[in-house]
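[job 0412] stage=fold_complex status=start
inputs:
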Amino acid sequence: MALALELARPTPTWYLLLGALLFTIGAVGLMVRRNPLVMFMCIELMLNAVNLTFVTFAKALDDIGGQAIVFFVLVVAAAEVVVGLGIIVALMRRRPGATADDISTLKG
Amino acid sequence: MVELVWLIPALPLFGFLVLLVAGRKLGEPLAGWFATLMCGGAFAASVAVLIGLFNEPEHERQFQQVLFDWLPAGSLKVQLGFLVDPLSITMALFITGVGALIHLYSIGYMHGDPKYSKFFVYMNLFAFSMLMLVLGNNLLVTFLGWEGVGACSYFLISFWFTDEANASAGKKAFVTNRIGDWGFMVATFVAFSATGTITYFANGQNIGLLDEGTIEGLAAVTATAIAALLFFGAVGKSAQLPLYLWLPDAMAGPTPVSALIHAATMVTSGVYLMTRVSPLLAHGYTWLPTTIAVIGALTALFAATVAVAQTDIKRVLAYSTVSQLGYMFLAVGSGAYVAAIFHMVTHAFFKALLFLGSGSVIHGLHGEQDMRKMGGLRKFMPITAVTFIIGWLAIAGIPPFAGFWSKDDILLAAFNKSPALWFVGFVTALLTAFYMSRQVFMVFFGKPNFETAESADHSEHAVQPHESPWTMALPLVVLAGLSIGGGALNLPFSHDTKFLEHWLTPVVEASETTFSIAGTTQTGLAIGTAVLCAAAILVAAQIYLRHKRAPIEPEVLAHAWYYDEAVSAFVAGPGATAFEGAAQFDRGIIDGGVNGVAALVRFGASKLRLAQTGYVRNYALGIAVGAFVLVGLFLTRAGA
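[job 0412] stage=fold_complex status=done
writing structure:
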């Protein structure tokens, strides 16, 4: 019982583990999926995993800097969403059902 | 007032820039007047600097003005600076003075030319370059001017480039000059590596190449090498054997160009250079001055024999110029730098006069240059005739005209060096009197050999020679005056009348050869030469005026001893094979190596670019692996 309580206590380790898990899901998803929208969501997942790690460390180390950086990440992510979604929408209009592998004209 | 020296080259440069931008708008004759004004302004500035220099005590007559550090590169610090001393200011005076007169003359001569303003663009650029050449305080600024005058010479020889002959004459001048320029450049390198400086005289920042201390620390072989290489450059620029070839062809340019560039100023820059570095000549082995004297004497004789048989009015003067330049190098080689500069100045007066006079004749005859089709012109062109005759007497060495005094100085120095050299110079003097008389008699005396309005049956071919406008006549009159009185610069009568010698003494005293020849010998040589020159004129009169004897004009002389043909044949024959071989080497080995490296890089790149698949997932994998490797590195390092 005590062990269960001890394990259930929200220590930084849990948050870091969760962040690492989310990041891995995102990274693997980015590499294995072909749908541009899904790949996009994977990137968002990775960003937020990093955010979570930042906040955890900010709390654990009692340093406000980590939380401040999260705001920057959020703002940049929002801007990136606008551009990225715009590109995806434009792409889907021209070639419905296109996957990320279809747009490989920059290959060497 | 010596601080005004920057104005001397700045005014022609300003004129060049203004005419370059707005020359066409100014048009004729404003562009010409503007260019003349700039050159005249430079002359006024030169006079101001001269007065400033004159007020200094004799041994403090040296002033340097540094405008800015031009090339600060390691231990090489080249300044853009000017050196004012009696030598450079003498050069600047006659360059701007004669230059302004020739600019004025060109206003009339170039009348109606479609490229009127462009002509003056080049003329002002030339004046600027020439002034940089003589006023520069180090070898590199002089070289800047040296190349500048070469480029202007090229532009102006091929000024009427629609004619194939003119264009190739320009190319010939340029290429031949480049051979000499090689010597100048290598001399600069040698000077820098041996002494660590290319500045002539010490100023705040640099030690001086020609300062006594530097010269004494220099091995004789190095001093000789530098001087010999510079002399090689001078041979090209001043049209000496064996590189004189370009000068006779350079007459393809407009006549004022021949007068300014190819008679009075640019071709004398080699003599200036030799005089400037005379301490090196004096410090080196004695075979070098002897070689210079021999080359000068041979060139003088060679060109004088060729001039005897030329029929083109300007080619006679061109070979005459080569011959007179040979005299100047004879003087330099004999250690008589004052005599060389003296002859340079008087030659600038009378040869510019003769060229401008011939231009006036050509102008009056609507482009005719063949002397056999002239004759009797003194009735039609009195001013041109009188001034040309003055120039003729000056170059023929008849006292009291300017040429007599300067030529006499040179012959005396040559006599001191070696009687054999004196004899070559003496024969050249007789030939000079002969061929110039031939020219004067053929052009201005005798019966007209062109179809005048009165004699012509078919009047559309008739030529009515006319006197030139005042802009052309005035320079002729001024130069004629200078050709008469120019000798007064350096009269040999007593120690006090040698003004030029006193003036130049601070510059050349360390290197000038002093000699004493008995007064009676001196007088005897001078009078003997003058009398025999007069005799040569009489002989010419017998042949060309009274037609008592048939002219002696062998084919071999008309063809300049076939030297030009021999060089052309060599360049076209065995030379071409050698050049072709060099070109093959260039294409095969050098270009092949360069292209091979490029091909290798291209092949490698074509393989390497396959790594760019264009699939986002591959890139993501690359980033992930890279991140893992980096993190792994940091972790292991942190442990270590």
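[job 0412] summary: Residues 26 and 41 of chain A are 8 Å apart (CA to CA).
[job 0412] exit 0
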